[in-house]
Write a structure and sequence with these properties.
Strands 10-11-13-16-15 form a 5-stranded antiparallel β-sheet, with no helix packed on it. The two termini are 69 Å apart. It is an alpha+beta fold. Helices cover 22% and strands 39% of the residues. β26 and β27 form a beta hairpin. The protein is flat, with a radius of gyration of 40 Å. The chain has 9 helices and 31 strands.
């Protein structure tokens, strides 16, 4: 008797835990860097309400959320579970952040601590790095707007990495980055053969002072025994010292820190054979090694006495073949001499700062003198006009007596009336010929953001006609048609069948929208095969 009682108690103790509802919460990773998102999955073995996410809305932004249900049959024992998957973006970058307990029906999840990685960190197995990332600057001290090379390298021990996922770049508003090149090669370090991905960028600072370059982060998936785990590695941090424009640089001129700046000019025709009123084109080219064309800016040419100048829009070109840019600005001016004699085109002088010697230098175009000859054609035409004006006698105008008919205004009014009506009818006839024989009815505008709200509103109001219209609009925006969705998810098929019976049955009946809205909410996402194309192709190992 005692043995039977103990066996009953043991059996009862085994049954009770399985009868109780269980809810769990897990994240895809517990260590992240600023700007990285995490995936939170909440699972329960009962068909309970959605989790209450209000407790962590002040800590995270919910980037995306969906739910799914799963039914498993093992030896006749059927078990069901429901999951909610949420993508969360932390609002803070403190050392750690806690996902508080969340209520799911009558149950509650356990808190989860997420730590922020604030130091460079590699991914190691058995003391050996299998994934690491590093950054480097060509120079640690530069002038404001000076271009230099920033290098990013990723080292991958390919056989031990399942997949490289995403490169997370920090946001640095005071720096400009321009992608230059990428190359892949192999390198052996400490006996490990790494696949190396090297990217180079041109970098320039927008303000002077000390600028901090935070760590770059790289997420990857590795195999840990029989499971896959997401890991994050971070690079070293850098500090760039940016010097202001030197004190002896001209204050009213744009600052041009470069390796070399040259000025050249071309004339459309010989400048020593000009007449008054002739036009000649002058093309000035500015080339700077180590600056972009936008950094060079445009050249301001002062007005010249005796010459009218008509500038054209400048042409900007950049050549990145030598890593650092070679910027070119081409400006063309059309010059027209308005007087005869010698006219001097003044010298063009552009200051620039030589970053190799740390000295102020000037790129110059020497002054040029134009010898403009008198144009006889202009002077002869002017003298002819003057003589014709002085020798021509004034003519006596003929006096014409104007005789008006007393009925002239009647005919004028009728003529104006018939002319106006003729133009109106002609316009209407042309307009009617452009119209289609059958006017197409405009389709209502569907806003994808409010599709679910439309279904929810129709279900809450128990309006079958509006619910059917909103359901059809929603189905048009899905990756699969409504029939395929009904085949894949039985609860939705049953709810739509009840809706159709109410709409198309001759007998009048009431309809409740709770079942349809519940089926829409619990619709599991369509399973998708992993794309062969990576999120960031250059960072996937071969």
């Amino acid at each position: 008797m005692i043995k039977r009682l103990l066996a009953s108690l043991c059996l009862f103790g085994m049954i009770i835990p399985t009868a109780l509802a269980e809810v769990t919460a897990r994240v895809d990773k517990t260590e992240i860097v600023p700007g990285e998102t995490i995936t939170l999955t909440i699972t329960t073995d009962t068909n309970s309400e959605s989790p209450d996410i209000e407790p962590f809305k002040n800590l995270f932004d919910v980037v995306g959320m969906n739910s799914s249900t799963q039914t498993v049959n093992i030896n006749g024992q059927i078990s069901r579970s429901r999951s909610w998957i949420m993508a969360l973006s932390p609002k803070t970058t403190t050392s750690s952040i806690v996902i508080p307990p969340l209520n799911v029906g009558n149950e509650q999840t356990k808190p989860i601590t997420i730590k922020f990685i604030d130091t460079p960190q590699n991914l190691s197995v058995n003391g050996q790095d299998i994934l690491k990332i590093e950054t480097a600057l060509e120079q640690k001290s530069v002038y404001i707007q000076q271009q230099q090379i920033f290098t990013l390298r990723v080292y991958i021990d390919a056989p031990k990495i399942y997949k490289v996922n995403q490169l997370i770049k920090p946001t640095i508003p005071d720096l400009n980055f321009q992608f230059l090149t990428e190359q892949n090669y192999e390198k052996q370090i400490n006996g490990i053969q790494y696949e190396v991905i090297e990217q180079k960028y041109a970098l320039s600072a927008l303000k002077s002072g000390s600028i901090h370059i935070p760590s770059y982060a790289l997420t990857a998936t590795i195999r840990d025994k029989n499971s896959l785990q997401n890991k994050t590695v971070t690079s070293n941090e850098l500090t760039l010292e940016v010097k202001p424009r030197p004190a002896n640089y001209p204050a009213n001129m744009p600052f041009l820190p470069a390796k070399d700046v040259t000025l050249s000019e071309q004339w459309s025709n010989p400048s020593d054979n000009l007449l008054e009123g002739d036009s000649i084109s002058r093309t000035i080219t500015i080339t700077a090694t180590g600056l972009t064309s936008k950094q060079i800016g445009t050249l301001s040419i002062a007005s010249i006495t005796g010459i009218r100048s008509y500038p054209e829009n400048p042409q900007l070109h950049d050549n990145w073949s030598q890593l650092l840019p070679i910027g070119t600005v081409i400006q063309q001016h059309v010059l027209i001499p308005t007087q005869a004699g010698k006219i001097t085109i003044p010298e063009v002088k552009i200051p620039w700062w030589n970053t190799q010697t740390n000295k102020l230098e000037y790129a110059t175009l020497p002054a040029k003198t134009l010898d403009v000859a008198t144009n006889p054609a202009l002077h002869n035409s002017n003298s002819n006009k003057a003589s014709s004006n002085t020798n021509t006698l004034p003519t006596i105008p003929n006096i014409i007596r104007k005789v008006e008919s007393p009925y002239l205004w009647v005919w004028q009014s009728l003529s104006a009336f018939f002319a106006v009506t003729t133009f109106i009818f002609l316009g209407l006839w042309l307009y009617s010929r452009q119209q289609p024989a059958i006017i197409k009815q405009e389709q209502p505008i569907i806003n994808p953001k409010t599709l679910l709200d439309d279904i929810k509103r129709a279900c809450q109001e128990n309006d079958p006609q509006q619910a059917r219209t909103a359901l059809d609009n929603w189905a048009k925006q899905q990756p699969e048609n409504l029939t395929d969705i009904m085949i894949r998810y039985t609860p939705l098929a049953e709810a739509i069948e009840e809706l159709n019976k109410v709409l198309y049955s001759e007998a009048s009946s009431t309809w409740k929208g709770d079942k349809l809205w519940q089926a829409i909410q619990t619709l599991p996402p369509k399973e998708q095969t992993q794309s062969s194309e990576s999120i960031i192709p250059p960072l996937y190992p071969k």
